[in-house]
Every structure is written in structure tokens, then in C-alpha cells.
Amino acid sequence: MKRLILTTLAVVLFAGCVTQKVDWQARVGEYTHAQAILDLGPPDKSATLSDGTVVDEWLTEHSHVIAAPEPYFLARGDYFGPATPTYTETYVPDYFLRLTFGPDGELKSWKRFAR
Q: Does pLDDT of 19 surpass 90?
């Protein structure tokens, strides 16, 4: 019974870590604007150019700040006053996916970028 529980726990843990990465280069010429909207939802930004090309952007990851504590390494008596806790802040920007569709509605190019 113990072995079954451990095996089930391991399967659930590893299954939760698996994410499929989309191979956008393989979708160029095969993927349509309608399929993109069905898969990704309505774009956050969209522009139609004079030649009929459609450029859509989706926000794929929101920006956030990671704050991590730092250890306080001074020995007793090497500081003046109480020990002050310190931390490091790291800013992670927004990440976007830009898909460009030709006038025929097929994917012509793609780009991932941060802003």
C-alpha cells in the first residue's frame, strides 16, 4: 500500500511539471488567425496594416518582483546596533507573443519578447 501511494504521488508530481512548448516555426504557413483566437483567446493588442496583414499580441506572463532574503553574515560585535535583515529584489518583465498573419489569414511570422 505504501508503495502504491508513493508511486501515485510521483506520477502526479511529474505530470504537473510537464508543459508542452508550442513550436511556432512549424506552424508558419499552417496556422490560421481563427485557430489562434480559438487557442489563445482574443489578443491583447491587434493591428491591421494597409496591405491586410494582421499583427496580434498576447500577454503570456505578467511582470512580478521576486524578493529573496539574504543571510546576515557578520559575527557578533562586528556591527553597530541591531542586526538589520536585508533582501534582494529582482524584477521580471511582462512577456508577450506576437503573431503576424498575412492577408490570407495564415501565420507568416512569430516573436516572443519582453517589455
A: no
